[in-house]
Amino acid sequence: MAADDQNCASAMTTRRSGAQTTALMDGSDIIALVRNEQVFSNFVDHKFHELDGDGDGKLSVKELQPAVADIGAALGLPPQGSSAHSDHIYSQVLSEFTHGTAERVSKAEFRKVLSDILLGMAAGLKCDPVLILRVDGQDLCHFIHSSAFEPEMVSIFSEIEPLPGGTLKHTIVRAFQKLSLHHIMPPASDSWVMSNVIEAALRSCDGDYDRQDISQDSFLAAFMKAAEMAVQSLNERPVMVAHSEKTFNGDGIKRLLSNKIELDKTLQIALKSVPKDRHRKMSKEYLRVALDTVAPAAGLPPLGAVDQMDKIMAEALKMLDADDGKAVKEGEFGKILTEILGSIMLQLEGNPISVSTDSVVHQPLPSASSLLRTTQSEP
User: Fold this and answer.
1) Domains identified in the chain, total number
2) Which of 7, 82, 158, 213 gets the highest tally of CB atoms within 10 A of its CB?
3) Distance of alpha carbon 342 from alpha carbon 316, whole angstroms
């Protein structure tokens, strides 16, 4: 057996060209659940009873909170209280259930809103499916013993700017951070991966990793050793990674603007979230909040989610003087918001933005509500 094959033997049972896909989340399971009248009725009955703590047949705002928290988590939002942007979306979800005023929600209303939200999520997954990948070190092993390893790592090494007092260890960690699922490496941005794969690999390696005189050859040799240990770690404890890709090209905005009924409905929802003064006017400073509200219908990410998109949205807001603080009538506010969407659409048509996201799938917290997880397991 060749030396390279011996190095890979403990981590490889079969050769393949990519990480193993264990699931494709395309919204089909959610659609099947909602459209099956009997199954969805049973699902709603079970969940409503689970949330109705006092058993009075209606859900209070407090009793709705676990459902709202789970919906936020399913949308990829951080926990409530983490950011003003995400907290606004949580408030919007709660407002969908209560219509902004109701203090208690009936089962019928809970069912209707939950159906709308789940179908909306399914539509999003249909357009942008999420792949669940099992990364077990096999393909990382193939990469580090392939002809592509040296040129790729030399290129990465050349991109890493030396830090004051930076050591070989720091350089290797930064190199791992530049790897991706293209190299079949789970994201180093995840704290579990950093601690249990990368830092654990470095602790297992012999050598002077505190040295500051780092040559290309010493980097390649040291990184190879660390990567081989990372292969062993991943082989022993495979990591599940959710991978999604999205291209923003303005098509979602175009569809919304071409459907007057849908556009008017979307604008009405957005305008309800904007406070009015005693003259029934709205401050233009709330255009950002309104834009965040219409974003899902326009195929746009929430503000703060994608840096490149934030720049385009900020430029569109600036062009239409969103920060001048003036108060305008509701009709004018809606007109400006529509013009902002049109401006963003034109920019994206000329320069589409493609982004991919990789995140480690961790076990849910024991205390978390099972509202949305059950949608994947119901018959």
Assistant:
1) 3
2) 7
3) 9
CA distances from 173 to 50, 195, 227, 230 (A): 45, 11, 11, 12
Mean pLDDT check: name the lowest of 18-22, 79-83, 260-264, 367-371: 367-371
Going by pLDDT thresholds of 50, 70 and 90, the confidence category of residue 361 is confident
Domain that holds residue 38: 23-128+357-376
DSSP state of 195: I
Q: Is residue 256 situated within a structural domain?
A: yes
Structure tokens at 102: 């109701």
Q: Quick one: which of 128, 124, 108, 125 has its CA closest to 40?
A: 108
- Whether 344 and 322 have beta carbons less than 8 Å apart is answered as no
The pTM for the full model equals 0.56
> Could you tell me if residue 17 is inside a domain?
no
CATH number reported for the structural domain that contains residue 54 in this entry = 1.10.238.10
Q: Is the pLDDT of residue 67 over 90?
A: no
Nearest alpha carbon to residue 114 among 177, 51, 198: 51
The angle at the Cα of 258, spanning 341 to 252, to the nearest 5 degrees, equals 55
